[in-house]
Amino acid sequence: MKLGFEEEQTPYHGPTQSARFWTESWVRGQAYCPNCGRTNITKYENNRPVADFYCSSCNEEYELKGQKSKFGARVLDGAFRTMCERLTASNNPNLMLMNYDLKKLSVTDFFVVPKQFFVRAIIEERKPLALTARRAGWIGCNILLNRIPEIGKIFFVRSGTLLPKESVLEKWQKTLFLRDEGAEARGWLIEVMNCVELIGKQEFVLDDVYAFEQRLCQIYPNNHHVKQKIRQQLQVLRDRGYLDFVSRGFYRLRPIN
Predict the structure, then answer these.
(1) Biggest CA-to-CA distance, the chain
(2) CB 34 within 8 A of CB 27
(3) Separation between Cα atoms, residue 181 and residue 253, nearest integer Å
């Protein structure tokens, strides 16, 4: 896996279109599918409404977004209504995010957010476009990266360094169980995973998670049994191999090699 873009002549004159050409060419030529590990990433025809790429071995689909600067808390996406409809669709793609350096013609960061992390809570509705805009009234959305647990950001390249393929594949497999859950159940599991990560320790106790009760109450104001819900989610995460139950009220995150 090479980090540099191929120095072939771009057919475009504008920097934005040229960057798109280079980043897409890099994915086709260098990226591998984190689901099956094969380098069979194929580009769909242009203007496909959902995905940009698919794996010809396992049929996982991917949407690519690239930019020069690092991604912050939000990623600009398309129409809000369309995104909400995609959340429950079987063809909702995984999201590839790439940062690049056009002076060096090289990838600096590249990671994938698996589609199971796309729940309603991470989609932010934007204000409608002004009446003077060409698409007046159109409502876009943002993807809230800061609401996605770190386990849901699977880096292939980080700060110009390639990460081991074995680690990428293992991290991908670790959260596939979320695809078996309904939207509401996934939302709760993802929020509890966020809380566990915020604790910042490999080993923690139940009271450490209870400390986020108020945060979860704000997210789920209609649930009046948050502590019971926390215990339930920790049990699911234990049964799914995300963490281990050490003793009563004591847990340990399973490490990723």
Answers:
(1) 63
(2) no
(3) 21
252: left (phi over 0), alpha (psi -120 to 50) or beta: beta
Quick one: tokens of 131? 């009446």
pLDDT per position as a tens digit, 48-95: 767 899 999 999 999 999 999 999 999 999 899 988 888 877 778 999
At residue 91, the pLDDT reads: 76
Cα 1 to Cα 26: distance, rounded to the nearest angstrom: 10
Token readout for 152 is 């849901």
Q: Which residues pair with 143 in a beta bridge?
A: 75, 123
Map residue 121 onto helix, strand or coil.
helix
Query: Which whole number is the average pLDDT over 207-225?
Result: 95
Q: Could you report the per-residue pLDDT of 22-34, keeping only the tens digit for each?
A: 899 999 999 999 9
Cβ pair 66, 107 in contact under 8 A: no
181-257: CATH architecture = Orthogonal Bundle (1.10)
Point out the least confidently predicted range of 32-36, 193-197, 252-256: 252-256
CA distance 211 to 43: 45
Q: What whole-number distance in Å separates Cα of residue 132 and Cα of residue 100?
A: 34
The candidate with the shortest Cα–Cα distance to 254, out of 173, 191, 184, is 173
The beta strand positions in 137-248, using DSSP E, are 140-144, 154-158, 161-162, 203-205, 243-247
Closest CA to 87 of 136, 36, 121: 121
Amino acid in position 70: K
The domain locations on the chain are: 181-257
Burial (CB count <10 Å: 0-12, 13-18, 19+), residue 62: buried
Q: What is the SS3 assignment for 20?
A: helix
Contact 69, 99 (CB under 8 A): yes
pTM (two decimals): 0.91
